[in-house]
Structures are given as structure tokens and as C-alpha cells.
Amino acid sequence: MVHFRSEKPGGTMFREPFKIGDITFANRVLRSSMGGRNSFYDGTVSPAFVHFERRFAQSGIAGIISATIAVNKKRMSPLEYPSLHDDRFVEPLKEAVRQIKEGNDCKYIVQLGDTGAHTHTSLLPQDEDRLSASSFFDLFYGYHNRSREMTPDQITAAVASFASAARRVHDAKCDGVEITASKGYLIHQFLNPFTNRRTDRYGGSPEARFTFLEEIVKAVRKAVGREFLFGVRLSAKDFNYLPLNIRWPLSPLRDYFGGNDLPQTTEYARRLKELGVNYLHIDSGFGFPNPHGSPGKFPDQGYHTFANATRHLSTKALVRAVAYNLTPAFIRRNVYGFGYRFVPAANADFADAIKKAVKIPVIANGGFQDRAVINGALEADKCDMVAIARPLLANPDLFRQLEAGAERPTNPCTFCSLCCAQTAVFPLGCYDEDRFASREDMMDQIMAWSSPNMDMPIARPKATKTGVCAS
Ligand SMILES: Cc1cc2nc3c(=O)[nH]c(=O)nc-3n(C[C@H](O)[C@H](O)[C@H](O)COP(=O)(O)O)c2cc1C
Ligand code: SF4
Questions:
Q1: DSSP 73-106
Q2: Partners of residue 217 on adjacent β-strands
Q3: SS3 190
Q4: Ligand nearest to C-alpha 445
Q5: How many CB atoms lie within 10 A of CB 5?
Q6: What pLDDT score does 470 carry?
Q7: Separation between Cα atoms, residue 324 and residue 301, nearest integer Å
Q8: Which contiguous run of DSSP H or E holds residue 25?
Q9: How far apart (Å, rounded) are the C-alpha atoms in residues 68 and 317?
Q10: 3-class DSSP assignment, residue 305
């Protein structure tokens, strides 16, 4: 188990510039991928998407990593997330990025992904939402009763869809492209020995499980050229086991409970560097959300809503919802929520190990809010940059507050993770009612985040009832 032990109050390193490839970032803080239902139904970015991103671009941070933008027409996960599966999306994205960046020294990196069998929602069930490396049952993630093994032709098409989408990112004049091999999404399903039981050239050994990602990386590099900024988001350690998550068929206990560990991921990181990847974006865990990737409280109310909102999609989804509805709240919180806790700089030590071993620029993700924690990780050289999601959603002016000398924002994110659990079914925003003077204030804030009208102010939370939950 790793522990973060280098907090440095008063530091200013977060303000120093950093260069990756040809791109110079104005400072060390990035907005991490944060997706919401703010695009049109076909996946075209909307004015609401622009205004959501622009609020961060104006906040002093050095760059934004987009939500996971879909490369596959069929797997829009969730609905109303942006897509880049066709050339028709290039011009709207190009204009959106122009507007987001206008007047701000904020780089824009598009993260591309394919959710595979972890597709969260769909209007109605569709077979494409269960494609994966192999056939398996997973109670928590995805809605299909069972995933379906991809054929070699489907794999070839998936590789090509990443390359085409990456070329569109380049054509839309973004500053870089990131492929997500994390979050339990399709590439991660190939990397993870629990979900990849193949015996062809895409599975059967750690090297073979890397083949799908390797083919994607080669195709993407070819599509965007040698100079374009290209990163990969990687889970340092799978932590496959979640309490009560039933998975089938059983696998060797090491894979069932563990999955890829740090030495294996470090080897993958080394290969990615050799393949011409410019940076790695490090988190951990398998599936979104999971206790390691989104360190904090168990978002019971959010999962409850999600389970009910998706129960029409399959027998599994229905059983999940019924179980949730029948289980008393205190049992849900204590049993389903086992393992959820806040850990500051949750993945900084993983980032550190990979950075030292591979000597590649590394962005650490998860649990960064306090100035001491951010600076501690940077000054200890555990990572080169930090990526922040929930604390920036809670306080879009977080960077300005830290710049002005604050150690912690006045009304900090509580890491309740409700925003993560709600994002597939509700508008994006902060859902911790305790941070607001009233429920109406909270709703106003959510509506403002999702509004296509930039003039609508984000209500500053008035209450300060809560603090950061203890680790
Ligand atoms: C509302 C919301 C939506 C998110 N959407 C994505 C996404 O589309 N792709 C992704 O890779 N991560 C996504 N994440 C995960 C964040 O990028 C980040 O890894 C996680 O929240 C932990 O970082 P934090 O402690 O700074 O919040 C999302 C997080 C939140 C809160
Ligand atoms: S306090 Fe708000 S922004 Fe922070 S995790 Fe909770 S819902 Fe998300």
C-alpha cells in the first residue's frame, strides 16, 4: 500500500510552467476529464458544453482534459456526452475549442475513449454496449447481463475508430490528444487479466493483453503525426476486488482480487514511452466510479438514483435496482460503501514510481485540493502536473484562491462523489446540499453549470457547514 507523505504548506510550485513535447503549460494544474450531459443527442458539442469548459479555462489553470469523448457511434456513454466518430464533428469542436480558449492561456486536450462493456446507459439496450475483450458477468459495471467477446474484425475496427477520432482532434486544432486506457473502459478491459480471458494474440499473457493498446497507440501516432501532444491515461493498479461485486467466471484469485499491479503497469508505461507517447496520466482502480479513482465518500444517494434510472435495460440492471431499493440505507452505506474513503493525492505515489522508472512526464490524478498537498507532490517530484476534477467543480476559482495564498478553498469540495454518480443521469454540478445555504441555491448552481448562457453566474456556495472528509 502506498502513502502520500510530503505535504508542503505555502509552496508556489503549482504556479510554475511546464513543457511536454512542444506544448508549454502556464502552470502545473489541469482540469481533469469531467463529462456531463451537455452535448446534443448525436454527440455534437453544444453551447452548454462550451460554457462549461470555458469557466475552467478562465480560472487560471494551465489546461483542460476533456470528458471521455466517444470514438464509437454506438457507444455514447452516457447519452448526451460528446462524440468524435464522424468528420462532421470536427468543425463544431474546432469552433468550441476556439471559444473555450479565447483570451485564456489554457490548453485543450481531448480525451478519447470507448466504454466497451462498461457502457453506463443507453436509451434502450443495444448489443454494441456489451462488446469487450471477453465474455464475463460484472454486477456493478455496465448494464448488460453479460459482455460479448469482440471478433478480430471488431478489434480492427475499434483500433481504426481511435485513429480517425484522433485525427479529428488534430484537425479541430486542439493542443493534444489523450487515450484513456483506464476507468475500466474498453482498452482497460483488454489490459485487465480478469476481463481479458482471450487466448489469441490479444490475450493469454501480460504482453498479449497490451496488444490492443499498442495497436491503438501506433495508429493514433500515425494519424496525428510525430509532433502532436499525445498522452495515455493509465490505471497504476487495478484493485479488481470491490466488496459485494459479483464477477463471473471466476479467475485465478490473483486476477479476481488484484489484476494488474504497479510493476506490470510500469512495464506497460515503459512500452508506451517507446511507442512515442509524450506523457502518462496516472490514476488507479477499475471502473467508474471506484474507490481508488474517485477517493472519497460512498455516493449512496447517487448510486441509488443511477440504479433506478437504468433498471429498464436488463435483468441485471433490474436486480441491481431492486437490491438497492430493498437494502436499508445504513447497510448500503456500510457494506456497499466499504473501501470508500478520502485519500489526499491518492495516486501520487503510483505516479512517482512510474515517473522514476520510466522517465516520462507524469500527471497525477485524484484527491488534489489543498495547496500543501498539490505542492507537496510537485516539490517531491512525484509528478510533473496534477489533474483536478471534483474540487474544481466545487470551486471553479480554486486556482485563483490558491494563488491568492489560501491553503484550502473557503468552502471546499467534500469528496462526497455525488457528482460522479449523478453524471450519467442528471446535469453536471455539485450535489452536496450541505455546501449550500439552501436546496434552491444548489439547484441554481447546477442549472448555471449546464446553461448555454455564460452570463448566468455560478452561485457561490454560501454555507460552510462541511470540511474535507478525513482520510
Ligand atoms: C462529474 C464527473 C465526471 C467525470 N467524467 C470523467 C470522464 O468523462 N472521463 C474520465 O476519464 N474521468 C472522468 N471523471 C473522473 C475525474 O477525471 C477524476 O479522475 C476523479 O474525479 C478523481 O479526481 P478528483 O479527486 O480531482 O475529483 C469524472 C469525474 C467527475 C466528478
Ligand atoms: S462536494 Fe460537490 S463537487 Fe465535491 S464531490 Fe461532492 S458533489 Fe462533487
A1: SS--SSTT--B-SSGGGHHHHHHHHHHHHTTS--
A2: none
A3: helix
A4: 2
A5: 10
A6: 30
A7: 10
A8: strand 23-25
A9: 23
A10: helix
CA of 128 to the centre of ligand 1 (A): 24
- Longest CA pairwise span in the chain (Å): 58
State if residue 430 touches ligand 1 by the CB under 6 angstroms criterion: no
Q: Whose CA is nearest to atom 20 of ligand 1?
A: 294
Locate cell 510537485: which residue?
378
How far apart are the CA of 24 and the centre of ligand 1, in A? 24
Measured from the CB, is residue 367 less than 6 Å from ligand 1?
yes
Tell the CATH topology of 13-425: TIM Barrel (3.20.20)
Secondary structure element (H or E) that encloses residue 455, with its range:
none
CB 61 within 8 A of CB 27: yes
Q: Ligand nearest 422 Cα, by number?
A: 1
Report which secondary-structure segment, H or E, holds 19.
strand 18-20
- Considering only CA atoms, which residue is closest to atom 2 of ligand 2? 430
What DSSP element (H or E) covers 48?
helix 47-57
| DSSP three-state, residue 291 | coil
**Cβ-contact 383, 352 below 8 angstroms:** yes
Taken in order 107, 230, 132, 259, is the CA torsion positive or negative? negative
pLDDT above 50 (res 108):
yes
For every residue of 243-275, DSSP letters joined together read TT--EES---HHHHHT-S-HHHHHHHHHHHHHT
Q: Reduced to 3 states, what is the DSSP secondary structure of residue 419?
A: helix
Write the pLDDT tens digit of every residue in 125-184: 999 999 999 999 999 899 999 999 999 999 999 999 999 999 999 999 999 999 999 999
Backbone angles phi, psi at 412, to 5 degrees: -70, 160
The domain ranges of the chain are 13-425
Pocket of ligand 1 contains residue 398 by CB under 6 Å: no
Asked if 52 and 385 count as a contact pair (C-beta separation under 8 A), the reply is: no
CA dihedral (402, 406, 411, 413) positive or negative: positive
Neighbours of 329 (CB within 10 A): 10
Nearest residue to 34 (alpha-carbon basis) of 410, 444, 387, 411? 387
Please report, as a single letter, which amino acid is at residue 423. T
pLDDT digits (tens, 9 = 90+) for 74-103: 998 788 999 999 999 999 999 999 999 999
DSSP H or E stretch at residue 431: none
- Alpha-carbon distance of 226 to 434, in angstroms, equals 48
The secondary structure of residue 49, as a DSSP letter, is H
Does residue 395 have its Cβ closer than 6 Å to ligand 2? no
Tell me, using a 6 A CB cutoff, whether residue 34 lines ligand 1: yes
Q: Which residue has cell 435496482?
A: 321
Distance between CA atoms of residues 76 and 69, nearest Å: 8
